[in-house]
DNA sequence: GTGAAAGCGCTAACAA
DNA sequence: TTGTTAGCGCTTTCAC
């Protein structure tokens, strides 16, 4: 059991002062070569490492970043974490994670836990419940205390800070356009309820694409799915809706899912109906995760570049922390998405 | 912009001493009711929160746990993080994450970054490369400095500490038994190379189950797949192997995949061959993730209870940190798995 | 009932 | 070239 080394112990052991040790370890030329070498050798031997906590207290910064996400099991957020972690480490920061589980209260508690010294700033994607309550006081309070926040993906106008987003509307528009280029006109959109801004924006993009192509948007072709449904229920809702459309003599020739689960569920009901993808129907989904790659046919998806988002968010935060950016001009960075064509479209 | 409050500022503002403020905020009866109330009101108004860093330095503990995982995008580890985070928060700890990306070097760097004061202890799942190199000096050094480590899932005898594992051998044996109970005898095992201990253990379980049922194990029914292959390659390897078996007149009636990807890939080649699951072949997979639920048919899987693993690991670590356990007796806790029957078996 | 002082580990300005 | 001191924010012992 090696004891933990401190400057004090080294100083005592070598019979010099603490500050001499401190200087010697920084290779300060003001310390005689001899003393320096002696101290360095000793420190090395005992594997001395400066205590981060003491440094943090002294420097008033911890070199750690608080990352608050709504859901860790979600593939997209896992990607973001991966990117954030990677970018942070490169710049000498570590990442602490708080999972809000889509709950307002957990989001607040998590951030409160970290705000008092544990982190230098936050990177956050807002919980659904918070979005619903529209209560952003915790974020604004932290900002008003001078601690920077970078919002990503789920952002909100009410909080003034840097933001990193994917252009959901534009991406959805592009995806829809792809479908239209495939000569599809009756495109069923599987989306979320409107209070989820992501879903709302994607719906807008879908509508814009239709409009630009002089295709009439029909309300029955937009299915808003309750997001707390599990995969069974999702599929049932989708199945029921598609059957209703079919029974009404309404033919659909494409499906655009606002996430992978919806799209795969759709794929499953299509198979039951003995229809072929992409021959009879094209399918496109948002979020390029595992499901898209392992489904049959493999799904054409909009890749949201979670890793890039994480990297951008962390770098933006660190730039702000290290004052590499204009004090009070906030900006919003848009990460481009791209369509990964696989087997569910032409 | 509210300034950050400290004891010192409060003391100055209220013209009392720092220690009086400190005591008053702890509701110490040695401070007169009047002073106490005045201070508490002031602190509340200015939203005073003690500085964690200062507390950490003073108390020599940070109430944060370092969680080192090989891969964050992996569903199982995401579950573990979720559990760890949850358990930690309940006991007043926060979790900082280090992702090794299966690399030895990143594992070492990450841990070094955290070991000097940032965390009180570690929960780690060892990277594949580390396992391959069999170099555990970083872990043992940390332990010898008196900082506790809990290993989970990927554990190793060379490190003396508490361990949390799922009984891979036993679980694989049970899964295989299920197949045998379904009257399957020619069970193709899709597993990893032997240096991955997880895969190795599961292979053992498979073999034991066969033996106990007097079924001869045939080497051509064990396919060891290179783990750095992507999903395309995996599927090709699996497909080629199955075709070879078939061409050789070898009939297989069940497939046991050591992870979801292998099992889903198998499902896909089975579909190509126009065989029916579970009528013609039963399929079981390890790790109960998203793929299993969205595949058709839905996969029967061995649920590894990632969340429980995370919870158990964190609680074990905290117990050790708070000295609720015997100083130098380490134990290994086995988390039971269970088989979730879905549509790919009878 | 209140406050001064020491100390957690470190840095840096200053003194010797 | 080396050492002393103050201070980061907090707790706690001890003195007043």
Structure explained in plain terms:
- 2 copies of one chain form a homodimer.
- Chain A has 346 residues and is of the alpha/beta class.
- The first copy, chain A, folds into 3 domains: 7-50, no CATH class; 64-165 and 306-335, Rossmann fold (3-Layer(aba) Sandwich), CATH 3.40.50; 168-304, Rossmann fold (3-Layer(aba) Sandwich), CATH 3.40.50.2300.
- Chain A has helices at residues 7-14, 18-25, 33-45, 52-59, 75-90, 104-115, 128-133, 137-144, 168-181, 197-212, 231-247, 260-272, 290-294, 306-321, and strands at residues 64-69, 94-99, 121-124, 149-152, 162-166, 187-192, 222-225, 254-257, 282-286, 300-303, 332-335, 338-340.
- Chain A has a 6-stranded parallel sheet, with helices on both faces. In chain A, strands 7-6-8-9-10-12 form a 6-stranded mixed sheet, sandwiched between helices.
- In chain A, helix 1 (7-14) packs across helix 2 and helix 2 (18-25) packs across helix 3 (33-45).
- The radius of gyration of chain A is 26 Å and the shape is elongated.
- Chains A and B meet through helix 4, helix 5, strand 2, helix 6 and helix 12 of A and helix 4, helix 5, strand 2, helix 6 and helix 12 of B.
- The structure holds a DNA duplex (16 and 16 nucleotides).
């Amino acid at each position: 059991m090696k004891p933990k080394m401190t400057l004090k112990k080294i100083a005592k052991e070598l019979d010099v002062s603490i500050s001499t040790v401190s200087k010697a370890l920084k290779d300060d030329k003001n310390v005689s070569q001899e003393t320096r070498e002696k101290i360095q050798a000793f420190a090395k031997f005992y594997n001395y490492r400066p205590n981060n906590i003491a440094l943090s207290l002294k420097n008033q910064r911890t070199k750690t970043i608080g990352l608050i996400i709504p859901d860790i099991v979600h593939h997209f957020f896992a990607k973001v974490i991966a990117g954030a972690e990677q970018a942070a480490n490169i710049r000498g920061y570590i990442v602490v994670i708080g999972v809000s589980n889509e709950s307002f209260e957990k989001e607040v508690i998590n951030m409160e836990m970290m705000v008092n010294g544990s982190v230098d700033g936050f990177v956050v994607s807002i919980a659904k419940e918070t979005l619903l309550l529209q209560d952003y006081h915790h974020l604004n309070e932290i900002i008003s205390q001078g601690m920077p926040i970078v919002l990503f993906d789920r952002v909100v106008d009410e909080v003034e800070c840097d933001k990193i987003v994917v252009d959901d509307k534009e991406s959805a528009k592009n995806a829809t356009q792809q479908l239209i280029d495939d000569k599809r006109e009756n495109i069923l959109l599987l989306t979320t309820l409107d209070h989820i801004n992501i879903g709302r924006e994607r719906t807008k993009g879908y509508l814009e694409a239709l409009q630009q192509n002089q295709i009439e948007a029909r309300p029955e072709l937009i299915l808003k799915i309750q997001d707390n449904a599990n995969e069974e229920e999702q599929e049932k809702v989708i199945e029921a809706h598609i059957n209703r459309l079919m029974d009404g003599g309404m033919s659909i020739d494409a499906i655009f899912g606002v996430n992978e689960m919806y799209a795969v569920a759709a794929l499953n009901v299509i198979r039951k109906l003995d229809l072929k993808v992409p021959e009879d129907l094209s399918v496109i989904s948002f979020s390029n995760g595992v499901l898209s790659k392992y489904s049959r046919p493999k799904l054409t998806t909009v890749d949201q570049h979670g890793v890039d988002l994480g990297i951008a968010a962390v770098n933006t935060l660190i730039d702000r922390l290290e004052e590499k950016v204009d004090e009070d001009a906030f900006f919003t960075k848009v990460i481009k998405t791209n369509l990964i064509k696989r087997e569910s479209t032409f």
